[in-house]
Amino acid sequence: MTAEGPSVLVVDDNPGDARLVEWTLTHEDGRRIRVARADRIATALDRLAEGPFDAVLLDLGLPDSRGTEGLARIRAAAPQTAIIVLSGGEDPERIRAAIDAGAQDYRVKGIFGPGELVRVLDAAIDRQRRGVAGTVPPPSARTPPVGGGVEPTLDDDAFGQLVELGGADPTFVPSVVRSFLDEAGRLVPAIGEAARRGDRSAVADAAHRLKSDAAQVGALSLARQLRELEGSAGRAEIGELARRAARIAEMYPDVARALRERAGGSVR
Fold first, then answer.
1. What DSSP assignment string belongs to the chain?
2. CATH number where 118 lies
3. What is the pLDDT of residues 172-221, one digit of tens each?
4. pTM (predicted TM-score)
């Protein structure tokens, strides 16, 4: 028997991220979770005005909001709603700022194991209803290789989680991979062009959009390069930005090849 679950508003301007979160929640066994989506804070506020939601899953980097500004606006508009930040990085100051601004939890984007996101959701809703403040979550258990180790093109565990999430649906993994390849095929060249002309904002925005998509499909080494590029876009010399962008362009064909092999013949 399917139990009625919470209502959730996913606020993210990255279609791949939003689609994956929605899939994760709506394919949870034994729960009927209602999911709506918004790609701007302004749109999210309109959705919240139309009717209450039990929780908001919020990306902090949106076109009409930066930092915790959007979080504060949602908290003011929906004081009874639990807010969980889903972000592409684990910067301790950013996590603390989100919790201080009223978020019940902060999680790094990626593939969530079976039941994991729903457990986070239920706990956040419970804390909000009891008036208990959020706490800073433990850091991710995933760490980069040390001692000069070489990161693989695709991380087996991360890709395995994607396969596990898709379950018996044979179209899920190919659709996620195809979506990533379409997005990366557009954004990787755009990053290089923006770096060469010194457009720091465009470099940071494109790297931000692509990094979580790369993590979703198990391309963790590429995601790390994109995260570092985004973080350095505002301060690095133009030549350094161009070199970092070129490194990403060099890595991408191997990632694309590996993904096509893993996803099967339906992805070209």
1. -PEEEEEEEEE-S-HHHHHHHHHHHHT-TTEEEEEEEESSHHHHHHHHHHS--SEEEE-S-BTTB-TTHHHHHHHHH-TTSEEEEEES---HHHHHHHHHTT-SEEEE-SPPPTTHHHHHHHHHHHHHHHTPPP-PPPPPS-----TTPPPPSS-HHHHHHHHHHHTT-TTHHHHHHHHHHHHHHHHHHHHHHHHHTT-HHHHHHHHHHHHHHHHHTT-HHHHHHHHHHHHHTTTS-HHHHHHHHHHHHHHHHHHHHHHHHHH-TT--
2. 3.40.50.2300
3. 999 999 999 999 999 999 999 999 999 999 999 899 889 989 988 999 99
4. 0.80
